[in-house]
C-alpha cells in the first residue's frame, strides 16, 4: 500500500502545538489545541491500524483536502482500492452518548452534531468532483470511532459507523476484496493529488504572534520542556528522559521556525537566536551548510532547503 500524507506540515495542529510551547495561547486556541490533539491521536491510531492490518494493494491519502464549486472537501482518510473508494472520518470521542436525530447527546446533557451529517455533505461534494474527473468507482463513506471508551446508544444499524470492535473485521473484508491496482486508478490518484495541491491554502484562524514575543531556546518536542542537557552529540530532556541526536533536534527547530515564519528568511542569526544561543555558532553554520544552500540578496545571506 502506498500512503500519501497531505498538508500535514501546514496544519493548524502543528502551528498551535509549536506556539503553545513558546507563548501563552488564549482560551479559545488552547481548547482548540486540546481538541485537535485528541483528533490527531485518533487519526494516528487509525493510520497505524490501517498500515498493520491491510495487506493488499491500494493508495491511502491521509488528510485529503480539495474543493468542489467553492465548497471545501476535507477527508481524514481516503482509500483507493481496486473495487471501491473508501472515505473515513475518524473520531476519537470518549464517553457514552445517545443518538437522537442529527445530534449526539451525552448522558450529562451536552450535545453535538452527528458526524454523519458532515460526512454526507462531504460525500456529495466528493462524488460530484469524481464525476468531473470521469471516475465512476463507487464510494463508501464511514465514520470511524477509534476510542474503545466510546459508547453510542440507539444508532440505527444502517448508519455508516465503524466502532472499535468492528475494525478488525472491516480490514479483513478489505483484504478479501483487494486486487491489483489498475492504470485508471493510478491516473485517478494523480488527478486527486493535483486537486489537493490547488487547495494548499485553507482557512487558518491563528493567534497573531511575532518572532520577538516567542520564547526562544531548544525545546523537547516530546514533552515541550526547555530543560535539556546537551553534549556534543546528543540532547537529553531532563523532564521526560528522551534522548535524540543534537543535529536532528536542531534540524527540527529549523522546521519549526520555517513553519511558524514561512515568509521570514532563514539566516545564521535568526537560527542562532531561535535556538536560544545555546548551540555553538560554528556547529549551526556547519549544519546549515550541509543541509541548505546559501543564497545572497544584497548584504543579507540566507539559507534555502536544498530541494527547494
Ligand atoms: Zn521531554
UniProtKB/TrEMBL annotation:
Pfam family name, one: NERD
Q: Which residues form the NERD domain?
A: 38-152
Q: What is this protein called?
A: NERD domain-containing protein
Gene source species? Alkalibacterium iburiense
